Every structure is written in C-alpha cells, then in structure tokens.
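Subject: for your reference before the review

Hello V.,

The reviewers asked for a structural picture of the protein, and I figured it would be easier to keep everything in one thread rather than splitting it across files. Below is the amino acid sequence we used in the manuscript, unchanged from the supplementary table.
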Amino acid sequence: MADSSREKTASVSSYQRPEAVISHWAHYRKEPYMIGPVMRPPNPESRHNRPTAEENVPNRFELFLLGDGEKKVTEETDTRIPSTSVFTFNKEDHTLGNMLRARLLQSPHVLFSGYKVPHPLFRWVARYTLGIPNNGNSKFILRVQTDGTLTPRQALLQACKDLVTDLGLLSREFTKEWELRKMVGEGVEGINGA
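And here is what came back from the structure prediction:
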C-alpha cells in the first residue's frame, strides 16, 4: 500500500498540465495561443480593432494649438512644503521644461526646481481603455520651491523673462555670424571665380 501512494505522488509531481506548457510557449509562435484551458485560434478581425499608424498620430496642429477652454499653464500650490507650487504646462515637452528648470536653478531664491513628463503609454491607456481622446496632449509638470522672498510664480515669470532675453541674444548673434559667413563665402567665390 505504501508503494501505490508513492507512485501516485510521483506521477502527480512529474505531470505537467498541457495548457501551462502551451501558454508558456504561446508568445513564441503566431499560431494558436492559449486563453484559459481552451485552445483558440487567433481572431483575424482583431487587428481591425487596433488603430493604424495614421490614426494613432495626432494632427500636427493639435501638438501646439490649445483647444477651447484649455489653459497653457495651470498652477497648484503644494501645501506639504512651504513656498512650493506645481505648474502644469500643456502642449509642451522636454525642450521648454529643461530650459525653465535650468534657468530657475540659476536664481539664488530658488531652492528646488524639477520637471517630469508623463509617460506616453499613460495617454495610450487613457485613450483606448478609458475612451479619453488623445489630443496630442503632451505636457510637463514643473515643481518650484523658493526661499520665501519670491513666490514660485514670481520666480517662474522672472525665469521666463530671462530666457526670452537670452534667446533674443542668441538669435541676434547667430544671425550676425551667419551673415558674416555668407559675406566671406561670397568674397572667396568672387576671388576664385575671377
């Protein structure tokens, strides 16, 4: 009797359920895959439920134009940390976020400045599982903490003004160098062409 019970436990432990094996290897092949204990062939119409590449890309104007009632920047005061605000910039990305963060950190009154961009997969999940349309809703969230002499809003406005000044200077210098290079290039071509 002891031998028969030992055989049963040995056979149960060495036995592998076929659906476990099939579901383990199902991602290696495109043919039948396992859903629960029943084998089902792939649904050929399931690819029509997914968006095509053209449908998944937002219109270009949706990437920067604000919709009706949509604000470019919203501010939310952080009550956990004194002199801290969280700004949400709609229809912007890392380009502006990194410039503002770096410029804010140059101010002696700013203790902390950081930004984050939500992962695009969250927008995909919101669109296809919750039914929220994707309006090219790229955004970043900027957190600013000051020492109290300036409010976070004042620090951000000053950083924006400084950035506009710096970018205007960069534009003038670049244009000046470009024109000088064009004149030098025309002079060299005139000498060589004559």
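For the response letter, the relevant points are probably these. The mean pLDDT is 75. The chain is about 45% helix and 15% strand.

Happy to draft the paragraph if you're swamped.

O.
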